[in-house]
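Obj.: predict assembly geometry.
Materials: sequence records (below).
Method: joint structure prediction, all chains together.
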Amino acid sequence: AQSVTQPDIHITVSEGASLELRCNYSYGATPYLFWYVQSPGQGLQLLLKYFSGDTLVQGIKGFEAEFKRSQSSFNLRKPSVHWSDAAEYFCAVYAGNQFYFGTGTSLTVIP
Amino acid sequence: EAQVTQNPRYLITVTGKKLTVTCSQNMNHEYMSWYRQDPGLGLRQIYYSMNVEVTDKGDVPEGYKVSRKEKRNFPLILESPSPNQTSLYFCASGTFQSSYEQYFGPGTRLTVT
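Observations (raw structure tokens):
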């Protein structure tokens, strides 16, 4: 079965610092990969996606992610975090008509 | 405005009392799906539908039913709710003609006592 692992349950960063959220997936072929963000009390919003081609993808709100096939990873990055980035972040995989989500990483931003 | 709507947003019910959570989208999407979100478990797919009259089980279908009689609607039915179905439920829709992006509804907070 497919699986998505987000090893970091919670991360705290200072405003203006860089950010990297980790995501590893388990799937035989190259899956379709996504990062979603969930603000408190809200639904999920797509940040970016990877299907094929350039392994570095750009998303909204200044986020980017890099697909590394050899490591089965799709880590999310942002060079400079803003206080409004505090939220829950989910990595997801689409495979076999289904979506599989990681357990999420909660991001706290301190001034 | 393109959106996915869910009703009700909050529901408290008792064990065994049948309930339906409605989901509707106005984007003509083929794909619709239901998820439950529980602390520490992320989102888990309950059921999905590739198109009208085509539904299939996700990872946690036990205790749930769905139907897709119209393209825009995808109700979630709990025929005999139990306390372990207390959760936050999200409906989502998407089109796979280009992006595979899912659009999520605002969520339904269900409590079963």
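Conclusions so far: The first strand of chain B starts at residue 4 and ends at 7.
To do: check interface contacts against the pulldown list.
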